[in-house]
Amino acid sequence: MAYETIIVEARGKVGLITLNRPKALNALNSEVLAEVVAAVNGFCANADIGAMVITGSEKAFAAGADIKEMQAISFADAYAQDFFVGWEEFTRARKPVIAAVAGYALGGGCELAMMCDFIIAADNAKFGQPEITLGVMPGMGGSQRLTRFVGKSKAMDMCLTGRMMDAAEAERCGLVSRVVPAGELIDEALKAAAKIADFSLPSVMMAKEAVNRAYETTLAEGLRFERRLFHSLFALDDQKEGMAAFAEKRKPNFANR
Ligand code: HXC
To answer: Is 69 an annotated catalytic residue?
Structure first.
């Protein structure tokens, strides 16, 4: 598929998606949505790929949903189209997706980063939900995911004042998993993804599924679900190989990548 708004490459076992609308600071229009979802689905279906990284430019991961595209939309159309529900397909990716965020991650950009499995931030990253300044509010998960990441007080602060959070604050409050120098962002994200892609793919996918389940169920049900997945991994050669390699003091060679 020829992409217009993103660059899609395989770097070894890692699928790299780069948002590429530099003139609009990678604002997320309907074309970006369709292309990102197609690229992710393609990597999920590709047996040679074990993990993905999604990134933007040094200035902007994404400065939000495309305001110029949204501007004229009516309530009737927004409701009828269930505007932006398409991004839910992105969150159904079963292989891990890391967001590598430099510069602005605002509105839909911050929400896209939060849809990923974890966020690695460059030291120049700025996160925010500025929709309130446009007379609207978050619409791609900002009021829900941000609250789960950082708690009510900070989520309210971000959504009601529209202020930005820098990378240090984002790491302090648990929005991002690590902060790295801007020049090392892509290498660090690719290294993390390559490490994941070298593990047993079923173990990786089940670990992702189990962590995500923590958001959707009670602790008792989540623990039961985790145990059942854990048990099922003993049906795979990868468990035998991983544990034998530990006992024999060598690196494991997993078959189910
Ligand atoms: C469309 C955008 C855009 C956006 C920037 N641009 N953000 N176009 N949608 N979200 C365009 C600008 O219009 C401009 O185009 C070019 O990108 C460069 O932007 P500047 O503003 O000139 O850059 P700068 O002065 O460096 O300021 C950067 C910025 C600012 C602080 C990030 O661009 C900004 O505030 N952008 C909007 C951020 C925002 O409100 N995001 C939330 C969107 S709502 P021209 O043609 O003039 O050069 C949202 C809702 C999600 O995300 C949920 C929906 C259901």
So the answer is: no
